[in-house]
Amino acid sequence: MSRERSTPDLDVRIVRVPQMTEDERAAIFEIFDASYRDANHEYLRRSLDRIGMVSLAMVDGRGVGYAISHARWMELPGFAEPQLVLLHGMRCVVPEYRHRGVGGVTNRAADAAMKAELEAIGRPHERQLSCGRYGHAARAGGRSDPGSVPRLGVRPTAWQQAVGLAVAEAYGSTLDPETFVCIGSGTPIGYPNEEFEPTEAEREAYAGVDRDRGDNLLVINWVPDPPPGWNDPDRDPS
After folding, report:
1. In the CATH scheme, what is the code of domain 1-68+89-125?
2. Pick from 26, 134, 150, 180: CA 20 to 30 A from residue 168's CA?
3. Is the bond into 150 cis (omega within 30 degrees of 0)?
4. Measured distance CA(124)–CA(143) in Å, rounded
5. Backbone phi and psi for residue 174, each to the nearest 5 degrees, phi listed first
6. What pLDDT digit, counting tens, does each position of 97-136 carry?
7. Is the separation of the CB atoms in 48 and 17 below 8 Å?
8. 65, 67, 119, 122: which is closest to 90 by C-alpha?
């Protein structure tokens, strides 16, 4: 029998972490606990504080899903002007509401909030750098498009490594720039209670990630296209 994919009646709110209520914080951590075994609350707390915005979905007063995301202008190596960087954090949906559109709704709400903020600022931008950290094999790590780093079988260039280090610093992570693995604290982030079977390419992309140590893989991707020289191994980022 196929799963019901209809979206329930959701109360979706954009929460700025500095103004977050105790009930909202509790709902986010309850969703995390329902989604992961050995959920590392300190990791989630740091992610919330670093990124600063959450799209939170509630049903009848209970939290059922969230997406942590925020956009910011950052000084990046190799650019004369600040670049628009989207820092995406953990996204979770409680098991009984998965495959019902909750994740899509929270993601779209976060995207709309970021777009509204950018329009209010009124600063023009040609492209943006979308970033995320992934603690277990996910399709994001198996990307092959030219704007994405890391790519299977391709060593990150000096420019890509320099940008990766700047993004990792924004997350509060320690990056191995050769592999784009963010080195963990020694404590697992948690283990999702529902996993898909990764492809061979996805498995290879995450070969260097030690989940027991709390590692994750930083994936960055330029949208709609990379800046000129992004994949040039001789490009000097200074």
Report:
1. 3.40.630.30
2. 26
3. yes
4. 28
5. -100, 115
6. 998 999 999 999 999 999 999 998 888 888 999 999 998 7
7. yes
8. 67
Longest CA pairwise span in the chain (Å) = 57
The pLDDT, as a whole number, for residue 144 is: 66
Angle, CA 148 vertex, CA 99 and CA 131 arms, to 5°: 60
Q: What are phi and psi of 151, to 5 degrees?
A: -120, 140
Provide the whole-model pTM: 0.92
Q: What single DSSP character describes residue 28?
A: H
Give the CA dihedral 226, 237, 129, 146, nearest 10 degrees: 30
In order, the DSSP letters of 140-181 are GGG--STTEESBTTBPPPHHHHHHHHHHHHHHT-EEETTTTE
Task: Domain ranges for the chain, please list them.
Answer: 1-68+89-125, 127-238
**Integer Cα distance of 123 and 73 in angstroms:** 10
| Of residues 79, 74, 75, 73, the one with CA closest to residue 237 | 79
Question: What single-letter DSSP state applies at residue 18?
Answer: G
Task: For 205-219, write each residue's pLDDT tens digit.
Answer: 888 999 999 999 999
pLDDT at 121: 86
DSSP codes, 90-134: EEEE-GGGTTTTHHHHHHHHHHHHHHHHHHHHT---S-EEEEEEE
190: amino acid identity, one letter: G
